[in-house]
Amino acid sequence: xxxxxxxxxxxxxxxxxxxxxxxxxxxxxxxxxxxxxxxxxxxxxxxxxxxxxxxxxxxxxxxxxxxxxxxxxxxxxxxxxxxxxxxxxxxxxxxxxxxxxx
Length: 102
What we know:
Layout: H1 5-16, H2 21-27, H3 33-39, H4 45-61, H5 65-101
């Protein structure tokens, strides 16, 4: 079943805010977890953390310099994505706090 474009945009917004895909699936019960997983354009924070952990573990086990450099570059990209997401969410929280204090 294809996911409605509007709902998919909402799902992508939730995932970019750090909501787990399993929580998104609970909010949209007419779609299965895997339908949502394959359609959203990004990974959850948990997914990115797992990917980063796997890259670091691979880096520790790798003996080839070229492999180590490639794995390190992938880890840097994931870390930058996490940082950018945290930065955007922090700005949102500051704005929410500002509105609530009025």
